[in-house]
């Protein structure tokens, strides 16, 4: 049965129950979000398609948290406030807190939006991939701030000094890479850097994240004053479509090792960025040639909509020429080919896949290499 916790003003929690109450406000404070959509409802985690899920932000705007992975370690942590623990115990506590923070990041929103509205959009692979990747990247990089806001270093001294790695190997590296690339292309845009782009994306509804990436890319393109006013919206949409169509290749492959999935994720993010830049060049060519965007059914300009595609009669550029690291290119090739498990060779444990049924935003069983 669901348990409901009322909202209280921020205070330093001294028990698991107080932590659960305070975590929502801490997530809002750390991120600068307008509000959290958490309803106060807390339930036990569940299995989805046979997959154990350790954390879930439900479409009813509640939380599901796994007892063994999240709740029990945190209860143990508060049972011994101020005690010294070994690194393994502190890591267990830290991962439980990161899962709690991750799910609260899913429930952050900008003004006038709520988490439930995102449900139909999360059925799109490129929306889910960016949502899960951004959420994990932000929760992982800002976890120490979350810990500080809740005063947890007093409860578990040394918890901020324990090193860990992010989860969601198929999604998180791509989200991190995409924000870095957005930072690079938008150097001329005041107030925009990779860390700020990540924060801005984290507090947006999943349905709005790609629109924000598109707008950053568009603002840095130099096309705003070139494209006729009545065609700017369509031109911007074309840039966005090019990027998210490429990003839809972000996916989980249970047969591949975590390191291979991470490399592929970075490679797909690079392709998405390049697809956007290619579309920008195509639009520029159309406007400079005819003064208008090409009709939808008309082949547009000299550049293919596929990032880095070669003109007819020429060899396709290498992965390095496209700006994709060799390991990422090889990993992408393996994911597309459905290669044999790399873990059988390397001994690495593969992260289990995330349900793609439009289920609530969730965190799967966590295994790290």
From TrEMBL:
Biased composition (Polar residues): 359-369
Superkingdom of the organism of origin: Bacteria
Compositionally biased spans, kind Low complexity: 300-319
Stretches the record annotates as Disordered: 293-369
Name of the protein in question: Uncharacterized protein
Species the sequence originates in: Kribbella voronezhensis
